[in-house]
Amino acid sequence: PTCPSATKSTPRIVPHNDAERCWLLDARQRLDLDGLDVGKPGDVYRVTLSCNMMEQLLEWNKIGHSQTPAFVDTGSYHVVASWHCWETLEMESVSASPGTFMLEVQMTKLKLEFQLLRNDDARQCIYPECEPGQTGTKESRVLGVGAPTAEAAAGNFNAGKGVNWAIEGKLGDVYRLSLYRNPRDLESLRIWWEFVENGPIVSFTDRYFLCGTMNRWGESGEVFELKREENDGAFAIDICITQMPMEFYLLENKLAEMAIHPDKTQCTQFQSHNTVGPDAQIFNRKQQKLMWSIGKAEDDHARIGDIFRIKFKPGDIRMIVSWAKSVARHLL
Asked: Is the CB of residue 314 less than 8 Å from the CB of residue 207?
């Protein structure tokens, strides 16, 4: 289809390579649909693609209820975790309690903010109900996959984007995070956590990521991680110049509040500046974004299609960000 989460009979089917543009057969009760597709796990639908000289249409119709035994949820559940650079960790199924999943987590400087995914699928997000800019608690209602149909966002899979629970505690605190989804009533979900102990913090190595025009300042979901170089302890990444100038700052452990940036806007590597952070202050007093800019300075000799290597050298006293052309466009 030509748009994400398209309904049946959406006009103008066109070939494309955008994985986000998919049809959505949503069997939940929705106010914006006619209700003919409402169903439960196990129901059967027939999908039909019709083509002619003028148009192509994809449609579906419910043709009956499944004759198989009651649906059993065999899905896995994953935590999208601030303490894991917003990557996922699979929860362990509790064999003695069907429908229960758990994961032990420890409080570090990366905090304990999270949401859940069924089958590690961002389209099956489980998140708390809370005010914009706030985080959920154990008392927050559970929304997303399995939420009561009256609460279902109409085909909006981004409804839970950036909406997380937060566990409060002290550094070193260990918690047992649990999810329960009733096997007999899939709309019944519960999220809770329990304090286990306070212990030595498990060591980890900081990671660094680009955030900039190359991934629409994080909105595209595309990840650009710098990799550690063995020879000098710096972190580096090769990036193709797709627009001029190419602007960016760094995120430590992919946390928005841990940005590493220059103290000037559209900063080149040739002008005098300080590298500051990690912090959340990515705007100056004029509300201009503080970022580096590849291609702004003529001495970069940057052109569309060139490959530049960006390097970051962390340090307690001084941090250094630099870049250099590694492959010119005409050599590709």
From this structure: no
